[in-house]
Amino acid sequence: xxxxxxxxxxRAERERQMLDAAVATFARRGYRAASMDEIAEAAGVxxxxxxxxxxxxxxxxxxxxxxxAAALTAAVRDAVEVGATPERQLxxxxxxxxxxxxxxxxxWAVLYSQARTVGEPFAAEVAVLRSEIVDFVAALLTAACxxxxxxxxxxxxxxxxxxxxxxxxxxxxxxxxGRELAASLMTFAWSGLSQxxxxxxxxxxxxxxxxxx
Amino acid sequence: xxxxxxxxxxRAERERQMLDAAVATFARRGYRAASMDEIAEAAGVxxxxxxxxxxxxxxxxxxxxxxxAAALTAAVRDAVEVGATPERQLxxxxxxxxxxxxxxxxxWAVLYSQARTVGEPFAAEVAVLRSEIVDFVAALLTAACxxxxxxxxxxxxxxxxxxxxxxxxxxxxxxxxGRELAASLMTFAWSGLSQxxxxxxxxxxxxxxxxxx
Lengths: 213, 213
Description:
Two copies of one chain form a homodimer.
Chain A: H1 2-7, H2 11-29, H3 36-43, H4 47-54, H5 57-79, H6 86-103, H7 105-114, H8 122-145, H9 150-170, H10 178-197, H11 203-209
Helix pairs in contact in A: 2-3, 2-5, 2-7, 5-6, 5-7, 5-8, 6-9, 6-10, 7-9, 8-9, 9-10
InterPro entries (chains A, B): DesT_TetR_C, Homeodomain-like_sf, HTH-type_TetR-like_transc_reg, HTH_TetR, Tet_transcr_reg_TetR-rel_C_sf
Protein name (chains A, B): Transcriptional regulator, TetR family
Domain HTH tetR-type (chains A, B): 12-72
């Protein structure tokens, strides 16, 4: 019955089910421990069908990385309020990022905990995603402040956001919500960036960066 | 001549030379590609001597992680000006971190690029180091502002610092100096933290975090 019912699904829908099952399994069991048997069972299909669609565990994992990376990037891009003030753009982008990672903890675990630590070629795929997000943030910051420190701020902001989302995934109960995380990072980061917009530099940084290093 | 000369070295000094060679080799070649032959050659000793002292490539790599982690943690702890203002403590800690990672790029590469991406048990060793640094930063922030967001700020600050140091290691010429990186992160982070000290929260964060979420 299940097999007959599932045969009617179009290929794209069937593949989506397999990827959903694979992301959940990789996130919870880890890349190495996860088996194709478990993934097939979680997807409600036979193991040969998973191989027919996705070829190998490696390719299945790569497909998970690509899908989750594209979804995260799209969530951030779509969230940023184009044409708003820099402050509002930052807030909307942070909210988009943290609400997406909070709503898709398995996808975030695949990108942040699994793909980066399993080694190559997966770490390189995640590095490409990361550099796209850094470039996107840098472009927004360039538009806002045009500072020569824009690259540094973009890396600082992306690193801070990753670190917070990673912490939230393992944080004590109750875990902070996406909105709370966005508010924390907004408080942490914005005033610094607002100073950058107006070209002012804080006390010790100004004092010290002027000295011979 | 070299062998006769090197036989006179005390064990601790010999081991230090081997670890220096191992850190440089792992950083440049990667954990998997690095061979015990290369490491022995770089240390100017025989391969059996490396095995005698450090047992295996895995144990050698673990010893590198422990040494570089301890050095980094000590650099940050020693740099923080105890009893100074929170602003000054932050600046001195950031400067300690970035000057250490700039001066020891191979050690940083072992911790940040190699150990985290090679998988277990090494990723877990680095995770322990990281949580110690987060706890240390959180304790400083608690003393400074006692805010309930201290854990979030500590994770944001550590993530931002890691991301900047990682970027600097692969940045275009001329790479930013440790002092420049510290100044960038100081500018980025401090004003946000100063608002936290006085209990003020920025506009959008205050507006939004008050809404049902």
